[in-house]
Amino acid sequence: MYNTIQMKKFGKRLTMLSLAIVGFTSCSVDVTEENTVTPIETTQLLTLGPRNLDPIIIQDLSNTEPQIAKSRATDAAGDDRGRFNITLKFLLPPTERQEQVFNDAAARWERIIIGDVPSFTGTIPSAFPGFPDAVDGTLDDIVIEVALAPIDGPGGTLGAAGPNFVRLDDFLTLSGVMFFDVADLDFLESLDLFEDVIVHEMGHVLGVGTLWNTVPFGFDRTLLEGPDSSPFFSGRKANVFWNAEGGTGELPIENMGGPGTAFGHWQESTLNNELMTGFLNLGENPLSRITAGSMRDLGYRSSSVGEQYDLPRGTPGVDLSTLEDGDNSQGLNIGAMETLLQPVGFVVSSEK
Ligand SMILES: [Ca+2]
Ligand SMILES: [Ca+2]
Ligand SMILES: [Ca+2]
Ligand SMILES: [Ca+2]
Ligand SMILES: [Zn+2]
Q: Phi/psi of residue 198, each to 5°?
């Protein structure tokens, strides 16, 4: 049992993604009186590691190889067993405003997911090669590595988000990634959607649209069902609230938009301004009890209230089929600007 490394090869490879970002190249030239030229250059590379490798499952307390996470149940002091705790780890120093928005976003999720999950003690590598471990010690309950760096300038790619390491016992996220283009943040502010975007991406880290179906990883969970033309969410709790809001049939998952939008969000045309649709509307985008219920279907203990959301009377959704590229007059086509990440590895508790 111990000192055993199980490597499982899955039929389906993880999403090929390696965002190699070269950022922070600033070069200033200092011309002195003697006409000597002194270049001052600072270059910092921020690269998301390869995500197409075979995932590794570990049951070893002492192994210290990279890409290996070790775990043991903990009774360490300092655990907040009373609630779900989100820890943010900024890879580069954020501005005060950025830090405030991320903290507010985490607080919104901590009001939706209300139950503690198993803590972790050990080491989990960073999603970004060259950076310190995401976890080295005891983690209660989830850590999100946040990287705000240049990607491709204004527009285009906003960033990538998703789980990095998940617990194999319940297939929920231990460490996650949120990687954003700093060049787009002012624009999000101008739409007054910065916080909503961050809350939305945090949802993907926690499992919305990323951990719905885990059969390819050997864990039996199928919450996304139906044909590609009309996918739906089959979790019971989310559907109870969907029907309570007046929705008919099964809770519809988006079938439109490119990869990333379709099959990873609620359907824009029926759920309107719900935050986990693939289009963020101007104005309010609440995290409803439908999403809260879906978190319970994933395995979290979640609120059964959610944020104020009125499906019949809320802001209508936009028609994605007629939406032009770059048309932000009605809000932000978030699904088209983000990449959803799949986990790169698993953590197995040794105490079972
Ligand atoms: Ca906790
Ligand atoms: Ca805990
Ligand atoms: Ca961009
Ligand atoms: Ca929407
Ligand atoms: Zn999204």
A: -65, -40
